[in-house]
Design goal:
Layout: E1 11-13, H1 19-30, H2 36-39, H3 47-63, E2 67-75, E3 101-110, H4 124-128, H5 148-162, E4 167-174, H6 183-197, E5 202-206, H7 211-216, E6 220-228, E7 236-244
Parallel strand pairs: 4-5
Antiparallel strand pairs: 1-2, 2-3, 3-4, 5-7, 6-7
Helix pairs in contact: 1-3
Organism: Hyaloscypha variabilis (strain UAMH 11265 / GT02V1 / F)
InterPro entries: Acyl_CoA_acyltransferase, GNAT_dom, Trichothecene_AcTrans
GO molecular function: acyltransferase activity, transferring groups other than amino-acyl groups
Length: 245
């Protein structure tokens, strides 16, 4: 892998050792996604399950050769979790000191079949280890799984229709304490550079709050989904699909 492709500066590849911190950042940031309210409607009662769920999902993203996880780092703010509405559960040994370099955001990409970069961004140390950490995913008590199937099916169909053969941005979030520092754009730009080097184009299925960011970076809307939940009156889960050529 060429040095120009690897994340640089305050960006780097995520490793399996990052998973606990990644789960905290995911909980703090995704709390503001419109989908969080229905997907994790019991988060306040079972915040530890939210953390464990993200740990499992993000460990898969790091270990799957068709996925890439990159992080952005900054100096730790001890009051960071007063700046999110989420409940963040941490262990005492996970609390850094003020000013220590920590992960404050991350992005996850999924490579299409046959992409040149498949397998080139895995955590080699974890891959070679005989004692890999296990992330059990918790008990899912924070989640309402009733929409998993209809939303998942609608999302998969939209991506197949509108974004075939592209590198997909699957996740992107920044901890709210570190918003408005250009970190989301930095992560997106790194992914766009990788796609260009691989001779591919990029796509994303975004929530409605994130559309403005992507449009400002040259993405164009190509489709939408809207799936009602089971409430009365129903809430609608929306997804917006954007392409970058």
């Amino acid at each position: 892998m060429s040095p120009t492709t690897l994340p640089a500066g305050n960006l780097r590849l995520g490793t399996i050792c990052d998973v606990p911190r990644l789960a905290q950042v995911a909980t703090a940031g995704f709390f503001y996604s419109p989908a969080f309210a229905w997907e994790r409607k019991y988060h306040a009662q079972y915040p530890e399950d939210t953390i464990k769920s993200y740990e499992k999902h993000l460990s898969y993203a790091i270990r799957d050769p068709e996925w890439i996880l990159a992080v952005v780092e900054d100096a730790y703010q001890p009051d960071e979790n007063t700046k999110t509405g989420a409940t963040i559960v941490t262990k005492s040994e996970e609390n850094p000191v003020a000013g220590e370099t920590v992960i404050v955001g991350f992005a996850v990409w999924q490579l299409p079949p046959g992409a040149k970069s498949i397998g080139k961004f895995v955590d080699e140390e974890d891959l070679a280890s005989d004692n890999k950490p296990v992330f059990d995913g918790g008990l899912n008590r924070d989640r309402d799984v009733s929409l998993d199937v209809p939303v998942g099916a609608a999302d998969a169909a939209a991506k197949e229709k509108h974004l075939p053969g592209r590198i997909l941005i699957r996740l992107l979030t920044i901890h709210p304490a570190y918003w408005r520092r250009g970190y989301g754009k930095a992560l997106i730009n790194w992914g766009l550079a990788l796609a260009k080097e691989d001779g591919l184009k990029t796509g994303v299925g975004a929530n409605t709050r994130a559309v403005g960011l992507y449009v400002s970076m040259g993405f164009v809307e190509v489709g939408r989904i809207a799936v009602p939940d089971n409430e009365e009156p129903p809430n609608v889960v929306e997804g917006v699909y954007l392409a970058h050529d």
